Fold this sequence. Notes:
The structure holds two protein chains of two kinds. Chain A is α+β, with helices and mostly antiparallel strands.
Amino acid sequence: xxxxxxxxxxxxxxxxxxxxxxxxxxxxxxxxxxxxxxxxxxxxxxxxxxxxxxxxxxxxxxxxxxxxxxxxxxxxxxxxxxxxxxxxxxxxxxxxxxxxxxxxxxxxxxxxxxxxxxxxxxxxxxxxxxxxxxxxxxxxxxxxxxxxxxxxxxxxxxxxxxxxxxxxxxxxxxxxxxxxxxxxxxxxxxxxxxxxxxxxxxxxxxxxxxxxxxxxxxxxxxxxxxxxxxxxxxxxxxxxxxxxxxxxxxxxxxxxxxxxxxxxxxxxxxxxxxxxxxxxxxxxxxxxxxxxxxxxxxxxxxxxxxxxxxxxxxxxxxxxxxxxxxxxxxxxxxxxxxxxxxxxxxxxxxxxxxxxxxxxxxxxxxxxxxxxxxxxxx
Amino acid sequence: xxxxxxxxxxxxxxxxxxxxxxxxxxxxxxxxxxxxxxxxxxxxxxxxxxxxxxxxxxxxxxxxxxxxxxxxxxxxxxxxxxxxxxxxxxxxxxxxxxxxxxxxxxxxxxxxxxxxxxxxxxxxxxxxxxxxxxxxxxxxxxxxxxxxxxxxxxxxxxxxxxxxxxxxxxxxxxxxxxxxxxxxxxxxxxxxxxxxxxxxxxxxxxxxxxxxxxxxxxxxxxxxxxxxxxxx
Lengths: 378, 232
């Protein structure tokens, strides 16, 4: 650390009351910003759980579909047409729908049922108990062991239940990358069994899942599907479409924006005011340094260093606090939806940089305006 | 007559604007020499501090020239002027302006740090200057733990740590009792003043006049005469 930086550092941290107030302000702001955005990111991941878990490269759907849960059945010919398109390696149907399960104790529980293509079982989950072939067995279902799993009475292989007056039996327990947004357990079965067991409209295929022959075929497939009157989206595009729906059409985005702006204003108010007061209280010291021979840019450097050091320390503490809270929350609530991503870390960092820049701007202005002669005059 | 350390010629300085405009310096000319302890005395508002600020490169005059060791300092840009103050001038402010959050040694090290010396090296060297002013055993204490006289000596140690050619002291005894004030100025005369250094002191205090090489009197922005020593 250069001498001038260490001087700035000592002037800052040795004023423990001010330094603590500055850190509290920035830490609190970062904590709020990251916590809010992490909750949002967690919910968005949950909202796209089926897309993430099935893992298909291309999803074909009705153009009116906004979220993965809002399925609109595709006519059977769509599957055949897609399979005959240039660039398609293979295409399979998938069923996605809701059902009511009657448990052994007589209670009812809503579930999401995913029906996998009988031939390929494309999108099958990773099993932690049982064998995937058993899904072809009579009345067979695989249950996902996620935070919603206990709602089915912590079933095990062999547990029986009723789905729409049909007998169902658990033949495997699976784990998936992401659990759903709506707090209901997930059951996997075959596509045909899903159609047999669950009441259905005329068109039953929720999505057609496609694997292209090569990455270069994606655009061609999308164009051909569009010509057919349907929509083909890559996995990432579908996830973006779902996020877009929740951000712009549910009010969640507006609430998130309001909370983030409020966090920013709180952080800026506390830190900006405290830092400005800190500079004002040390104005005579900066004047003395100027008289002794410090250049204007060295004083600016000192203030920027102080603001940056405080901001980065507060940023680190804010992240740490947020991680701690999420970890503690998950000990009590395994289903707690919060996800710290590079995106929310980046957003909080930009906010912190802006707080530091605005705080130091006013400090720098005052310090540059002070005349060393004022020190002589007292 | 040796070349002057400082030569000021016909220095004029105005403050304020409009009806509030006042002339603080009315064509002041003065020389100060190495090995000299020059006092400028006079009533409050006579322009002493303004003159000191103009001579030390802190306050730009409206007209006139100030040469230090033959160079006109007011032709320098702001960075060069800052360098000039750092390398040529040592300041002892009336209120000391020590940094309460730093130790005594770190306070003294400030001019060395501004000269881009490494922190630990600067603080170690600062301890030597604290030893000169008799405060080596106070090196790790913050200035607020020191008496007024000790703080003044720390300020002197800081002023001489940069090994300046010219030492500027503004009312050095104003915050001290009579005996301490005399002891401090006496200490400066015997331990800080040398053949290669010029000391300028602005003071009201008659009790320290015995230490002056020369005393100039100032009134209403002009030097009115020599109270002690040679002509102004």
